[in-house]
Amino acid sequence: MSLPHFGLPGFPDAAPLEGLLGGALIGLAAAIMLLMLGRIAGVSGLAARATGIAQTDMPQPVAALFVGGLVLGGFLFNLLLGPIEAEYAPGWGWIVAGGLVVGVGTRLGSGCTSGHGVCGMSRLSRRSLAATAAFMVSGFVTVAVVNALGGAW
Amino acid sequence: MRGFFSLLSGTVFGFGLALSGMMNPARVRGFLDLFGNWDPTLAFVMGGAVVVMGIAWVIQGNMLKPVADPAFHLPGTKKIDGQLLGGAALFGAGWGLAGLCPGPAIASITTMWPQAAVFTVAMLAGMLLVRLSGRA
Question: Is A8 helix (H, G, I), strand (E, B) or coil?
C-alpha cells in the first residue's frame, strides 16, 4: 500500500492511517447492510447462514453473496494494491485449533468482531459491549499465556 | 436488489479489511499482545468502523424501513448470560491462537490459500458442532 506513512510515536509497527481508512470502509459496508437490507453485517452469522448451518429468515443466497463479496474484496485489493502483508502462525495446529474454537465460540456467543464489535458497540447494545469485552480480555489472556509458555510467533 | 447490496457490502467489507491490515494475523496478534510489543492498529480500525456505523444507526433511527427490504431484521435485546460471555471468551481464545477472526479469514481465501481456507473450514466445523449439540 502506497499511502504516506504516518507513524505513531512509540509504536513503530502501527499503521494508524491504513487502520482508520480500512475501518471506515468496514463501517461503510456494515452501513450498506443495515440501511439497504435492514440487517447486521455480522460475518460469523452470515457465514453460518450462507452454508446452511444457521436457519434464519435471511434468504440463503443473499447471505452467500455477502460471503462471496468478502472473498472478492480481498482478491480485488490484492490485485490492485497488493500484495497483502500476511504472516501466519507457524504450523497447522494453531490454524485448525483457532478455527475450531472461533467457530464454536461465535455460535454460542452469537457473533464476532463485526457483529458485536462494529455493529453492536456502535448501537450501544449492552449485550454486544459485554461480549466484546469478553472476547478482547480472552484474546489478551490467550496471547499472554501462549507467550509465557514459549509459543510466541 | 437485495443480492446486489449484499454482494456490495461484502466486497467493501473485504476491501476495507485488506486495507486495514487485519488480514495479517501477526498484526492482529500484535494488538492482543498487550503486555508485550503492543501494536495499537486494530484500535484505529475499530474506531473508524464504529464512528461510520454510529452515523448509520442515527440514520436508521429515522427510517421506517430499509431501502431494499420491507422491514428491519435486527436482534432484540436478549439477556447477558453465561452462554453469551462463555461463547465470546472462547471466540477470543481462538482469535488469540491463530490471529484470525471470521471476516479476515474468509476475505483471505484467495490470497492466503490454503491456510485461510483451512481456518475457515475448521471454523465451519466448529459452528456445525454447536448446531448438532443443539445449543444455538
Answer: strand
**Three cell numbers at B104?**
479476515
Decide: pTM greater than 0.95.
yes
DSSP B25-82: HHHHHHHH-TTSS--THHHHHHHHHHHHHHHHHHHHHT-SS-TTSSS----------H
Q: What would the pLDDT profile of A61-96 be if each residue is shown by its tens digit? A: 999 999 999 999 999 999 999 999 999 999 999 999
Q: How many domains does chain B have?
A: 1
| Cβ contact, residue pair B21, A48, below 8 Å | no
Mean pLDDT of chain B: 96
Structural domain for B111, as ranges: 2-133
Identify whether the C-beta of residue B69 lies closer than 8 Å to the C-beta of residue A62.
Answer: no
Residue A129 forms contact with B (CB below 8 Å): no
pLDDT at B135: 79
- Is the ipTM reported for this complex over the cut 0.90? yes
Q: CA-CA distance, A101 to B55, in Å (whole number)?
A: 33
Q: Which three cell numbers stand for residue A19?
A: 487502520
Residue B53, all three cell numbers: 456505523
3-state secondary structure of A11: strand
CA B6 to CA B75: how far, in whole Å? 18
CB A77 within 8 A of CB A84: yes
> pLDDT per residue over B42-70, tens digit each?
999 999 999 999 999 999 999 999 999 99
| Grid cell locating B118 | 483451512
Domain ranges of chain A: 1-86, 89-153
**Window A:15-44, CB contacts with B under 8 Å:** 15-16, 18-41, 43-44
